Structure formats: structure tokens, C-alpha cells
Amino acid sequence: MSAGPSSVDVPDSADLPKQVILLTHHLKRLKLPTIQRECQKQARYAADSGLDHLAYLSRLVELECIDRERRTVERRIKAAKFPVVKTIDSYHFAAAPSVNKTLVRQLARSEWIDRHENVLLMGNSGTGKTHLALGLALAACQQGRRVLWTTAAALVHELIEAHDERRLLRMQKSIARQQLLVIDELGYVPLSKTGAELLFEIISQRYENSATCITTNLPFAEWTAVFGCERLTGALLDRLTHHVHIITCNGDSYRLSDAKRRQKRAPQSDEG
Fold first, then answer.
1. Helix, strand, coil % in the chain, rounded to nearest 5
2. What tens digit of pLDDT does each residue of 140-195 get?
3. Distance from C-alpha of 230 to C-alpha of 199, rounded to nearest angstrom
4. Contact 253, 124 (CB under 8 A)
5. What is the number of structural domains in the chain?
6. What is the CATH number of the domain that holds 114?
7. Which end of the chain is flanked by fewer CB atoms within 10 Å, N or C?
8. Which residue range is the domain that position 61 belongs to?
9. Angle (CA) 258 80 225, round 5°
10. One domain for residues 56 and 113
């Protein structure tokens, strides 16, 4: 009987003892790839170290759990559809003195998501709002939460398309299952009446049921220009700001400052 492809470090399954062949087969059926890969190496280590059977088994199960959690986190990150992966630790707080570092670190524990609260990142373009949102969303994935990332324009486009194709309810249910919805770049593109109403419905459905994080370059007073209706904007803000953490990102554009620094360094590197 062939055991099929295996990560056990032996040249040929025909040379394996029957017990090892059966063990490999059973571990594959039980979907325990880490134990399958590690069992013989850990058995040799246990024998050399004088570990008993329970210690050996405990070590194998621990390795399987660690590897399974790693794979689960990778799946969550992939499902979140991040444009890039960024962390809170890589954010340049020194370049953004207006950002409340203590609050950001607190939010990175993701407890606000479990409380169904919201986060608004507000400020000028290029000040790191998207970076912070990505960092908070990545931390949420790593801590076991379901996350979906989108831009405001893309979300509205998909909602309108789903509405026209009579699958809006299915899309709304899919979004509702996400413990955290991140909407990036709200305010960069004015919304149509239908788009504004559909986005309002999504945020309204999440109110006190799930967490939402929004980045925007507009102060609240200018949101009506995006949604086109003062009454709708007021109702939207009422829901978003009831349980909210606001992070202000003001100052010069980090991207612009970084480009200027690189431009200054360019003649020196050319001469070198």
C-alpha cells in the first residue's frame, strides 16, 4: 500500500515499518500535517532526552496547534483582502505628533471590536490614516477576528451592482458576518443617491452589532457633500459616532515629505 506524498524524512515508503505507514495514512486522513511531519523527529528527540510518552504527545499536539493557528491567521488575512500588509509597529508616530499613540496601542488589542464600537481616522491626505487602519485590521486578524477591507468607492460600486443583479441581500449578509469592516477613503469621491443610501444601510445594519473602521479626509461638516443629503448624513453620523474612537491625523503629508527627502539624497548617491 502506498502512503502517497509524505513529509516524513525517509527515502521510500516501501522501506518504512508498517506502523509508520499506517500512522502516516491516519494522520493524513485526520488532517494533522504538522504531527505527520514532526512525529519521527520528535520521537528521536524524546528518546534522546528521556521524555515519556505523554511529553512526546504533548509536544506534537502543541506544534500542530501552533501551526494550525498560523495557517488560520494566514487565511483570515487573505480573506480580508488587504491592499498591502502593514503593522502598527511600522507606523512613524514621530512624524505624526497629532496621532494619539496610546489610543492606537489600546485599539490594537481589538477589544473595541468585541464591544461593537467604531474607529474613525480623520485627517489630511498622506498622514497615515490608511496605514493605521491596516495595522488595526491586521492585529484583529491575528487575534481571531473576521475582517473585510474595502474602499468607499469600491464598496458602493459592488453594492449597486449587487442591487441591480438582485443579490444585494446575499452581499449584505456576507458583510454582516464580518466582525470588522474597514472602509478606506470615504470622502474622496461623491456618492450617487442610490450609492449613499446603500452605504447608509450597511452602516446602519452594523450599528451596535459589529465594528466599523473608516478613514476620511473630510471633517464631519463636509460629509453632506459626499452623501448629498443632510438628513441621511445626520442619521449616518449619529450611528457612527455613538460608540466611536476618533484618531486625528493632521500635519504634512508623510508621502510628500518622504519624496522630498529622497530627492535631496538623490544627487549625493549619484556622485557616489
1. 60, 10, 30
2. 999 999 999 999 999 999 999 999 999 999 999 999 999 999 999 999 889 999 99
3. 15
4. yes
5. 2
6. 3.40.50.300
7. C
8. 13-75
9. 65
10. no
